[in-house]
Design goal:
Length: 550
């Protein structure tokens, strides 16, 4: 197990509602003395966020400024609506996209929503294989949710103390050598947690957020080890099932990989196991201190053996010990490019979506491309990219010639930029200590102009120690902080290196601190040359010396 820790600077979270703690006298949870409850336990105990769905028409009448603060900044997140203090009155709307799969019709619905907001509207593919919309007004929320219901979409339970998007192999059902098709499992887990998308109060008052991932291929394309609960394919007595790991998380005070539960389950046991772990966590997880309430803290408090035996009691049956070895045998792939599927004659095409950002016209165009050349299906990856599957060979070239792919979302990007990941940053996120997405893009373009690399370099940016952009899994990870330059406080980054993904995954370490963003390019240039074999990019044509200027 790799574990890295740090104490977060007060500026990173101090002023945000997420970090506040107050003493109150009511307790929804038996394990917490009333006087130690934090503000969020009281907010949850007073009213379930799901109830706000009935109040949306009223909210539209009174407008966002008149909303109760706890509703606006906490409970609405249970419905997937995140008020952005950086853009007052505008909400981010986070969807649920089990396994990252959505039909083109859903992408069109999302495009129509952001289109209404003009320059304020766009969408982001997230590091949990998911999609978020920006610019949303509370006045439109009721109508948006009605459209979701008609289309079979949901954004429910995607924020605060709920289970986040359930991730699975982005090429599930497509790859010849896959071990388990994760599509049905991720969807079944999502349906269990959300009551088929309608909302499920059983799981809206967890002690803290919770991440679940199900790996089905050999390359651990979901970063299983960074999740609170994850399933890794493994054989036992000739049957394929999953080894289970628990407790992974990135939190400002602690970055830690999941540890083995010493349990192996068949695919049909995944949903009951998820349910049992969630109930155990809901009923016994630590709630007094929000900085110490993720699942790993319960595992710490009990020890893994007790956690396992309590889980057996919750499940009502004993667990089989883990298989000795798992089947993660490959390095992680980015899925960008053209790849044959197990279905003869069909290919999937992975497109680089720079920093995951999409605008309405591009979303419409992607939906059209998926319909015209593929089967109308779209898949998202945790690298914030997009895959269009089921493209027959006969239509492949025409698809690759599409202007959107030629000009914006290439299937054959440069090695330097093809693995760029970035969290939201200060454009929309109140936690952010720096601007990330646009800076990450500008930086990679500048480096790409100077250098070439022979393999993709995994470069991740995250705007604060919350680590939504996962710098700990990157070859080179930038974590936003504040630094000093010429006596002034400036935007800066800590640099993380050595993250390994796929086979033998482990977290990287922080290797440099407080590099002012303005001074970062030469630092990255040197790292790329010295540690990743980058070479100067040859520009122009080679001119033999005898023909050079007279
Ligand atoms: Fe995150 C909070 C964005 C993946 C750890 N995260 C936030 C908030 C909601 C903070 C806020 O209120 O502004 C961010 C919303 C910004 C915005 O407007 O977009 C935010 N997190 C994101 C996304 C969009 C980053 C991205 O650009 O892709 C990702 C959404 C995933 C999704 O679809 O649900 C996102 N966040 C992650 C991940 C990565 C992952 O899951 O693999 C992590 C680290 C893994 C983990 O959770 O263990 C992560 N986010 C956090 C934390 C720290 C949690 C902790 O235990 O301390 C916070 C703060 C909190 O919860 O208090 C946070
Ligand atoms: Fe916001 Fe990025 Fe910090 Fe996450 S890591 S809270 S998206 S700035």
């Amino acid at each position: 197990m790799t574990e890295t820790s740090e104490v977060q600077t007060a500026s990173a979270v101090g002023s945000h509602i997420e970090a506040e703690a107050v003493n109150i006298n009511t307790s929804p949870s038996e394990n917490v003395p009333a006087k130690t409850l934090n503000k969020f336990e009281r907010i949850k105990a007073e009213k379930d966020g799901l109830v706000l769905k009935q109040e949306l028409d009223y909210f539209a009448e009174i407008g966002w400024e008149a909303l109760d603060e706890a509703d606006r900044d906490f409970r609405l997140r249970v419905l997937g609506l995140f008020h952005r203090s950086v853009t007052p009155g505008r909400f981010m709307l986070r969807m649920r996209t089990a396994n990252g799969i959505l039909p083109s019709s859903h992408l069109r619905v999302l495009a129509e929503i952001v289109q209404r907001y003009g320059d304020d509207g766009n969408a982001d593919i997230t590091t949990r294989q998911n999609i978020q919309l920006r610019g949303v007004r509370i006045e439109d929320a009721a109508d948006i949710f009605r459209r979701f219901e008609q289309a079979g979409m949901t954004s429910v339970q995607t924020g605060v103390d709920n289970v986040r998007n359930v991730t699975g192999s982005p090429v599930a059902g497509l790859e010849a050598d896959e071990l388990i098709d994760t599509r049905g499992l991720t969807r079944a887990v999502q349906d269990m947690i959300t009551n088929m998308g309608a909302g499920n109060p059983t799981f809206t008052n967890l002690p803290r957020k919770f991440n679940i991932a199900i790996a089905g291929c050999r390359d651990n394309s979901v970063h299983a080890e960074t999740n609170d609960l994850a399933f890794i394919p493994a054989y036992k007595e000739g049957a394929i099932g999953f080894n289970v790991i628990v407790g992974g998380m990135f939190s400002p005070k602690r970055y830690v990989e999941a540890i083995p539960l010493d349990a192996w389950v068949l695919p049909e046991a995944v949903v009951p196991l998820c349910e049992a772990v969630l109930l155990l966590y809901r009923n016994h997880g630590l709630r007094a201190n929000r900085q110490k309430s993720r699942l790993m803290y319960l595992v710490d408090a009990w020890g893994i053996e007790k956690f396992r035996s309590e889980l057996e009691t919750q499940l009502g049956q004993s667990l089989q010990p883990a298989a000795e070895t798992d089947e993660i045998t490959l390095d992680k792939r980015d899925h960008i490019g053209v790849y044959p599927q197990k279905q003869p004659g069909l290919h999937y095409v992975g497109l680089l979506i720079p920093i995951g950002r999409l605008y309405a016209h591009e979303m419409f165009d992607l939906a059209r491309i998926a319909d015209t050349y593929g089967s109308g299906e779209i898949r998202l990856t945790v690298e914030q990219n997009l895959i269009i599957p089921n493209v027959p060979i006969s239509r492949l070239q025409a698809m690759l010639n599409e202007p959107l792919l030629q000009e914006r979302f290439p299937a054959n990007p440069d090695n330097m930029s093809r693995w760029l990941v970035s969290c939201t940053g200060n454009q929309f996120c109140g936690f952010a200590l720096i601007e990330t997405k646009n800076r990450a893009l500008a930086m990679i373009k500048a480096l790409e102009a100077e250098l070439t690399v022979s393999r993709p370099i995994r470069i991740h940016w995250t705007g604060c120690p919350n680590s939504c952009g996962q710098p700990q899994v990157a070859d080179i990870g930038m974590m936003g902080t504040k630094g000093r330059k010429n006596g002034q406080v400036v935007e800066a980054v800590d640099i993380w290196m050595g993250g390994k993904v796929g086979k033998e995954a482990h977290l990287g370490q922080r290797v440099m601190q407080g590099i002012p963003c303005d001074d970062l390019k030469p630092v990255l240039h040197t790292l790329l040359v010295e540690q990743f074999g980058a070479e100067p990019r040859q520009t122009g044509y080679f001119v033999p010396p005898e023909l050079a200027s007279p």
